[in-house]
Amino acid sequence: MNTKHSTTPEELNAIISRLADYLLTHRIDNQFRELAREEARQISIAQLDQLRNMFHDPPPQSDAYDLQQHGLGGWLSACQFAIFELIYNLGADALPFIREIAWGEYDWTQGNAIELLLRFAAEGIRTDEILAEIKTNFPQIRYEAQLYCMQPLLPELKQNAQLKAIFDQLRNEIEEFEEVYAELTEEVVDEDPYHLTNEVFQGTVLEAETVQKTIMEYEIIGSLTIENSDSALFPTVEGRARILISDRCQLFQAEGESVEPVSLEEILSAGKIAVGNWTFSLPEPPPPAIIPGMITRIG
Predict the structure, then answer these.
(1) How much is the average pLDDT of 200-216?
(2) In this entry, which stretches build a coiled coil (predicted)?
(3) N or C: which end of the chain has fewer CB within 10 A?
């Protein structure tokens, strides 16, 4: 951490862009963590408010960002992850700032901040304090933030015993934490024979048709045949998958840089959609969440 002088806005933009570029081409891995650790040496704790302003005002998009591949909000999301990784490397001095975001007014970045708190607790930094905060606040925060704070850490549980111990303790003591964990790890699959899910994904619609049927308590209103899905939940055949959608789904169509609600009847073959109760790739203001916004695969 640089404690002598502040990085200029141009330098800070360059740092975040480099990290976001890496995320778009490699995703989160140990090398990303190391790169962020090195970059954070140039940043001062006094720049936290400057970093906060960049949550929704990121550096200009780089050549690594591809709208078709990464989605409308892909660059913003990568920059936010990069910024929070820099903040994490500022250490315990950044905790008051992180807590303010984690337990403050809802924003997409709330999940990022809670993720950092979980990592600090696993590192033995203010562990008891952080766990007490999570036990008090986690049941009260929005479902989207609960999902978003946990999902990036799941791949690390197998090799990070300290983090797994934190997760195990919270799963045992917070019902909502256990429910979200089960949702993300598909441990409820036996109770979900129709593979219902809240997952949000994007794909190009090739065909849409009206369907009227009931599965469990869900009213199915149609089916979509899509390609280029970014979800591993729906196995594709020759790059295509067919899904059933319920009346609880939200559909959005992307045209250029805008995203607008669209009905099943209005979906065109060239439209790109997000299906489900939430998407982190939509620009602000986000649509109202409908929980659960169920989709189901057939197959």
Answers:
(1) 69
(2) 160-187
(3) C
